[in-house]
Amino acid sequence: MTTLEPKILEMTEFGPLVETDDGSLTIRHSGHGQDFHSTEGAMYEARELYVVASGYLDALCVGGETLHVLDVGMGLAYNAAASVAAWLESDGKRSVSMVSLEIDPRLASVVAGGGAPWFKGWRDAWLAGPRAFGEGFTARLQHPKSAAVCDWVILVGDGTKTLKSVTQTRFDFVWQDPFTPQLNPGMWSSEWFSLVRRVVSEGAVLMTYSVSRVVKDALESGGWSQQKIKTPGRKRHWLRAMPR
Ligand SMILES: C[S@@+](CC[C@H](N)C(=O)[O-])C[C@H]1O[C@@H](n2cnc3c(N)ncnc32)[C@H](O)[C@@H]1O
Q1: Does 32 reside within a domain?
Q2: Could you report the per-residue pLDDT of 89-116, keeping only the tens digit for each?
Q3: How far is CA 222 from the centre of its chain?
C-alpha cells in the first residue's frame, strides 16, 4: 500500500480509481487515502503472494479433500478472484470453499454484482467468481473438467465478530490483507491472530504483505510461527505464518 501519485482514471463511491504498475486497477480509499493494493500491482500481488507463494496453487494440483480458504479483508476481491481463477484453470482435482470477510457492505454488493469498475481488464477466469453470485453473498461454481465445485461466501461485517460464526470449518489457507497495522490495528492484534488460529487446520498457511515487527510479534503471541520470504518483485519480503 502506498500514497504515491498515480493517474486517477475515474471517481468511484469508494475513492479514485488508479492504475498499478502491472496495469490492474485499485482504489485510493476516500476516507484515509491509503490504496487497497501495492503500486507494484494488484493482480501481481494477488497471484504471486497469495496464490503462488502460499502453496495454494501446488495444493490445487494434487488430489485431496476440499481446500478451505479464509480471505481476510475481501476489499476489491483481487485475492478471492485470483483464488477462484487458479482453481478454474487447474485440473479440478479438488473442491475449494472460500469465506471472505468484509466490513463494508457496499464493497460486498459491488463485488457480488459482478461488474465493479476495477474489474476492467480482468480475464474470464478472474471474472467467473464475482459473476457466480445470484441474490445475496453466496456463490457456487462448477469445475469445467471435473465434479469439483468452488463455494464462495462473503460474510459482511466486522471480521472480529463474523469469524466467530464460522465453527465447522478448518481453513487451510488464510489471506491476511487488511489495511496497514497503523490504520487497522485490531485486524493485526494477537487477539485477532489467536481467533484465526482457532479456525485453521494444523498444516495451515497464513500469508501477508506486512513484515513489520508489530505483526510478527502479534502472530507469535497469537499462536503462530512466522518467517519472512523473498518476493519476486521490488518489495523484498512478505510473511508466511503457520500454526505453532
Ligand atoms: C487492503 S483492503 C483488501 C484488499 C483485498 N484483499 C483485495 O484482494 O482486493 C482491506 C479491506 O479490509 C476491510 N476491512 C477493514 N476492517 C475490517 C474488519 N474489521 N473486518 C472485515 N474487513 C475489514 C476493508 O473494508 C478493506 O476492504
Answers
A1: no
A2: 999 999 999 999 999 999 999 999 999 9
A3: 20
